[in-house]
Amino acid sequence: MPGTERLKNSLSPELATKIKGGYNLPGVDRLKQCLGCGERREEIELMRIVNNKGELKVDPGGRLSGRDVYICPQVSCFQAARKDNQLSEELHIEITEELFNQLLEEINHG
Asked: Does pLDDT of 34 surpass 70?
């Protein structure tokens, strides 16, 4: 974002604490919306799924690059996102039954 780097540089070290590869800027929330239920939650409460070069991965650390979506770590939200085809559309990848089951397994055991 234009101007963000300037803002980061203008903040004192007490106000700009480096976290997760970014900065916790005053007035900037880290709320994300669940793709399944639509509820807004803190980023750390949601599961991040990334299309990383054509491969879907669950990214708990938020470090992988690629198209991403955030989903509540509940099977019902994951199924709702797939039912409406939102998961495929947002990640720009076809979600096969096998791929869906692999992600579902990660949700259940992760």
From this structure: yes
Q: What order of strands is seen across the sheet that includes strand 55-58?
A: 55-58, 47-52, 67-71
What dihedral angle (degrees, nearest 10) is formed by the CA atoms of 102, 87, 108, 40? 160
CATH for 30-109, options being 3.40.50.300, 3.30.1230.10, 3.40.50.1980, 2.40.50.140:
3.30.1230.10
Q: What pLDDT is recorded for position 21?
A: 46
* Average confidence (pLDDT) over 39-61: 91
- Residues 64 and 74: their CA atoms lie apart, in Å, by 22
Give one word for 107, left, alpha or beta, with left for phi > 0 and alpha for psi -120 to 50: alpha
Asked whether the predicted pLDDT for residue 11 surpasses 90, the reply is no
Structure tokens belonging to residue 72: 């509540």
Average pLDDT over residues 73-82: 89
User: What is the rounded distance in angstroms from the CA atom of residue 59 to the CA atom of residue 67?
Assistant: 11
